[in-house]
Amino acid sequence: MRVTMIGAGYVGLVSGACFADFGHQVVCVDKDADKVAALNRGEIPIFEPGLDDLVESNMRQGRLEFATETARVKDADAVFIAVGTPSRRGDGHADLSYVYEAVREIAPLLSSKAVVVTKSTVPVGTGDEIERILRELRRDADIQVVSNPEFLREGAAIQDFKHPDRIVVGTDDIGARNVIADIYRPLYLNTPPLIYVTRRTAELIKYAANAFLATKITFINEIADLCEQVGADVQEVSRGIGLDNRIGGKFLHAGPGFGGSCFPKDTSALLKTAQDYGVALRIVETVSAVNEQRKRAMARKVVTALDGSVRGKTVAVLGLTFKPNTDDTRDSPAIPLITALQDLGATVRGYDPAGMEQAKPFLPTVTYCNSAYSAAEGADAVVIATEWEQFRALDLQRLKGVMAQPVIVDLRNIYRPDEMKRANFRYLAVGRTGVD
Ligand SMILES: NC(=O)c1ccc[n+]([C@@H]2O[C@H](COP(=O)([O-])OP(=O)(O)OC[C@H]3O[C@@H](n4cnc5c(N)ncnc54)[C@H](O)[C@@H]3O)[C@@H](O)[C@H]2O)c1
User: Fold this and answer.
1) Measured in angstroms, how far is the CA atom of residue 260 from the centroid of ligand 1?
2) Which tens digit of pLDDT belongs to each residue from 280-339?
3) Which residues pair with 383 in a beta bridge?
4) Is the CB of residue 121 below 6 angstroms from any atom belonging to ligand 1?
5) Distance (Å, rounded) from C-alpha 332 to C-alpha 313?
6) Protein residue whose Cα sits closest to atom 4 of ligand 1
7) CA distances in angstroms from 145 to 119, 170, 194, 198, listed in the order given
8) What percentage of the chain has pLDDT greater than the value 70?
9) Which of 87, 211, 312, 322 is buried deepest, with most CB atoms within 10 A?
């Protein structure tokens, strides 16, 4: 099959490389000329484990190309739209301007039997509007519009794309279903369920999935707050409830609140859709509000660890991305945490294995360091904000040796209190009794 991806970001690039790896002929079109030039030089603009090898081998075998010219859609059997749908400034609706702009650009160039597939996360009814635009601009053609939302997670994107729990295909058109089924056929060996639904249902499945996962995280975060007050351990509560198959253990890790390029904007966009249709989604509303407050409130933990004030003190923050194995800092909980610490008078040193360049525009006054130990130099406290693998086995004696005082605030619960006690650290975690 000939596939064109519009947008070569986290989703477009991973999906395009994986489709090429399935054996399809793929062109990824992006309007960012620098990104396309870098990709054509074999440089991967994002940090995603395994992506460099996948891209390199599929380019070498002639199945994967990168271009800036939208004209490359003309022979495609399917054109996937994978452009960004950020929160619209001011009202929290999904900003669909990139999607509609892409549709208007490709409309005159599409073959008359093309299938346009929305992979971007878009509110219910967006497919209808795309169809309306295409009908208006291409009266001659019979172009089908399908919703095929993407569920991959950054940091495990290739694994997720190649071993999905399900593939959701939203269309009533049998021909379009067959095109999508052909594209995903190599995955049938792993028998992931292909779920055929209407386009509106497919669009809503994506938002409902993200809102549900955000709810799980927020639920356990509030239980963590209660654990701290009653002397229980949230890690054990998570395990105790997560082993129940009806609940499941995933997304039950207490921490500084959810962030990233999807959950915050998608919960907000879902709420706006619900408002537009006069429906109250009170649970999602609460999840969104509780999470927003939590991120900045994490600074209070550092204040407590430093006897009531961070003014004039130095805090080292380890991990700036919203989760490990990505360079994505969009809506990372580390950002409001750090700005809150700075507002309270702290000097912040930061280190992240992949996301420092991306963090700089949001956090211009942080001192960026080249390792966890150099960030900890002279620090009154080390805060673990992201659970990167390399932070899980820090040399505690070396760390203590460079710090002004031995204090760790572990917002991801990656250490055990007894281990910290042995190493003579003051230790505060989330939802567990700390060590003084
Ligand atoms: N990042 C994730 O983990 C993830 C997971 C599932 C779904 N999604 C959804 O997928 C969509 C894309 O997300 P992303 O993180 O890949 O975004 P991104 O910002 O990383 O990439 C979007 C790309 O689209 C390009 N672009 C914009 N307009 C274009 C146009 N008219 N023609 C060609 N290229 C254009 C941009 O230059 C950019 O490279 C969003 O709707 C997002 O919600 C993201």
Assistant:
1) 13
2) 999 999 999 999 999 989 999 999 999 999 999 999 999 999 999 999 999 999 999 999
3) 317, 409
4) yes
5) 23
6) 11
7) 11, 9, 17, 11
8) 99
9) 322
